[in-house]
Design a protein that fits this description.
The chain is of the alpha/beta class. It is built from five helices and five strands; from the N terminus they run H-E-E-H-H-E-H-E-E-H. The protein is globular, with a radius of gyration of 14 Å.
Length: 143
């Protein structure tokens, strides 16, 4: 989670919401990193999770990330949760829960939707205070 928080802090440099993500392989090696870049890239899909998944798939040369773990500072939205399912990620570790748009159980339950062909094990609340505080400070400055 420390690496994901580092990525989140880098998002501040471009005025993006500070969310960071990493994908680690079965031996704990970092395969991909990502931070929100919607503002930087003017791309609505440039979420931390999507960028980390793309980087990991590129590093491995395959789209199935079925032996990897996604670690992210904020509970994924519906788009990112869907991408996690489609990448066949077996485990998600998240920091802060998102009571407004979370799709790992807070608002929606995409990752464990019984009608889908893949489910994701969710471990939430890891370094929750640090992850939430970074977001609180960012939005306080925006107001």
């Amino acid at each position: 989670m420390d690496l994901a928080l580092q990525e989140a802090r880098l998002a501040l440099e471009t005025g993006d919401v500070p969310i960071g993500a990493i994908v680690v392989g079965p031996e704990g090696e970092v395969l991909g990193t990502g931070r929100n870049r919607r503002e930087a890239d003017q791309d609505p899909t440039a979420h931390a999770e999507v960028l980390a998944l793309r980087a990991a798939a590129g590093a491995l040369g395959r789209w199935r990330l079925d032996d990897c773990t996604l670690i992210v500072t904020l509970e994924p939205c519906a788009m990112c949760a869907g991408a996690t399912v489609l990448a066949r990620i077996p485990r998600l570790v998240l920091g802060a829960w998102d009571s407004k748009a979370g799709a790992a159980g807070s608002v929606f339950e995409v990752l464990r939707e019984p009608r889908l062909n893949h489910w994701v094990e969710v471990h939430g609340g890891v370094r929750q205070d640090a992850c939430a505080e970074l977001l609180r400070q960012f939005f306080a400055r925006q107001r």
